[in-house]
Amino acid sequence: MHRTHTCGELRIEDEGKQVILSGWVQRIRDKGGLIWVDLRDRYGITQLLLEEGRSNAPVIEAARALGREFVVKVNGKVIERLSKNPNMPTGDIEIDLESIEVLNKSKTPPFTIEDNTDGGDELRMKYRYLDLRRQPLRRNLELRNRLSIETRKYLDGEKFFEIETPYLIKSTPEGARDFVVPSRMNEGQFYALPQSPQTFKQLLMVAGYDRYYQLVKCFRDEDLRADRQPEFTQIDCEMAFVEQDDILNTFEGMIRYLFKTVKNMDIPKLPRMEYADAMKYYGSDKPDIRFGMKFVELNDLTKNKGFKIFDEAELVVGINAVGCAGYSRKQLDKLTDFVRKPQIGAKGLVYVKFNEDGSFKSSVDKFYSQEDLKTWADKFNSKPGDLMLVLSGEADKVRKQLSELRLEMGNRLGLRKPDVFAPLWVVDFPLLEWDEEGKRYHAMHHPFTSPKPEDIHLLDTKPGEVRANAYDLVINGVEIGGGSIRIHNGDLQKLMFKHLGFSEEEAQEQFGFLLNAFEYGAPPHGGIALGFDRLVALFGGSDSIRDYIAFPKNNSGRDVMIDSPSAISSEQLDELMLKVVK
Ligand code: ASP
Q1: Which of 152, 437, 458, 550 has the fewest C-beta atoms lying within 10 Å of its C-beta?
Q2: What is the distance between the alpha carbons of residues 552 and 366, in angstroms, rounded to a whole number?
């Protein structure tokens, strides 16, 4: 027998029990007369004790010969600890050791395998299997497992049907690049790995499986960022015979259920915000509404006072930072530097301090009188002690810039608390998005998203103004998921393809299967997909999804542990009829 208990389960109530434990040696402390060994497994850590004079001499000798990460099986008696450790679940007890059997030795690990490690990122990625022994990572995977179980429970309870869709498919246009897989049996032809199961789940609706879901891997060959992985997991869902409200209510229910069961938090009903308002008041389609600081537009108050920059700007817009009137020159310079960073790209920042004595001090005092600034303050609903921060320029750009500044101020003022969760729905996204480079419209969500019926007449004249039945779930400024009500009518789908610049032949070649399916009784349907890795990270209070994936890729899309991607042999290339041209 390898163990009677795990390393995480013994408590003071177990005192006196004879136990067998197996695990890894995390640490050995040898204080001459006393030796302590921390034994670790997936469930926790238990302290083992040896005492010179009392414990068996050969056992003491065996303990002294142990190294970090040796795998051992030990036998002993549970005793009460003299100095208890309230931070450990097993901190009240230790094991009075009677025997040690080394099951396997270990090289000295390249970094310390404890809660706080000395290993750098790259090293820990290379030895991911060692990093995964650390409790913080183990807890992350535990959270992931819990969330996937609860997700399945909820969806199962709502009569959703988990159905697997293929990984070797044909490319689906969802904006990103496809990963492709050469086909050995079909010379010169390629599969694509799915960016999402979008068309398959729609076909399942045509097939009559009216509530589908899948925890599914998706693949996108995009430039990587901290919160992106080339392969990631989605909670992918589709429903038939529904309207937008049915989908929002079902998945709002799921989010609230997950917060309740996994974090024991009651989340109030989710607010719904129109895309246009999200942009106008937060400069972002994923606003962090844990705090206010809504945008205030000032054009009508700033015009014709001799300040050319504001006079010429399409939009003058600002935020009110409560209680920041005391900011020093240096602090204000820092904020100006922040908005001038190339990634943000503002030219400058105008500030107005609303002093405690009711007077104003601003960086544009030359142009605006105290009375003028008072009208700004009224519009901001600013109070003495507050600081108004104003940007100007082209409307779209300046909104993005101010959105960054708003988040920065939120951080500085401690308003973005990791233990507060503020989910919302952003609805009524535009159907189409103008692509300046390609000089044409793209589907903002994907080509299967339906326009709002009342906006269809604008398709020819003002395509940019057509709204879609599309929605995003946003939590704390992070886009957790999105979906839409789909087009289920072949003619409308063809019209959509036409507006997206597909010829009839191209549409038929790429999506003939879907258009055909729509000829055989497609029900009204719609769905959503939530980024599972992001959701788990958010629940874990982190924004690094990598820490919640067992074997992630690094920032250049490499798995440094297995050293992939890598070259393949010339035999393999020949078989695939591929040639590497450098
Ligand atoms: N397939 C979409 C995506 O991956 C989600 C959806 O429309 O259901 O973003």
Answers
A1: 437
A2: 55
- Each residue's pLDDT expressed in tens, for the chain with a length of 582 residues: 999 999 999 999 999 999 999 999 999 999 989 999 999 999 999 999 999 999 999 999 999 999 999 999 999 999 999 999 999 999 999 999 999 999 999 999 999 999 999 999 999 999 999 999 999 999 999 999 999 999 999 999 999 999 999 999 997 655 789 999 999 999 889 999 999 999 999 999 999 999 999 999 999 998 877 678 999 999 999 999 999 999 999 999 999 999 999 999 999 999 999 999 999 999 999 999 999 999 999 999 999 999 999 999 999 999 999 999 999 999 999 999 999 999 999 999 999 999 999 999 999 999 999 999 999 999 999 999 999 999 999 999 999 999 999 999 999 999 999 899 999 999 999 999 988 888 888 999 999 999 999 999 999 899 999 999 999 999 999 999 999 999 999 999 999 999 998 899 999 988 999 999 999 999 999 999 999 999 999 999 998 999 999 999 998 899 999 999 999 999 999 999 898 888
196 C-beta closer than 6 A to ligand 1? yes
Helix axes 395-412, 275-282, angle to 10 degrees: 70
Cα dihedral value 404, 467, 235, 448, nearest 10:
-130
Considering only CA atoms, which residue is closest to atom 7 of ligand 1? 483
Q: Is the distance from the beta carbon of residue 293 to the nearest atom of ligand 1 less than 6 Å?
A: no
Residue in 445, 487, 533 to alter for ligand 1 test, most ligand atoms within 8 A of Cβ: 445
Q: Counting atoms of ligand 1 from 1, which one is nearest the CA of 528?
A: 8
Domains of the chain with CATH codes: 12-104 (2.40.50.140), 140-273+424-548 (3.30.930.10), 291-416 (3.30.1360.30)
Residue 453's φ and ψ, nearest 5 degrees, are -50, -40
From the CA of 486, give the closest atom in ligand 1.
7
CA–centroid distance, 479 to ligand 1, in Å, is 12
Q: Give Cα separations from 122 to 136, 176, 398 (angstroms).
A: 18, 27, 38
Cβ atoms 241, 206 nearer than 8 A: no
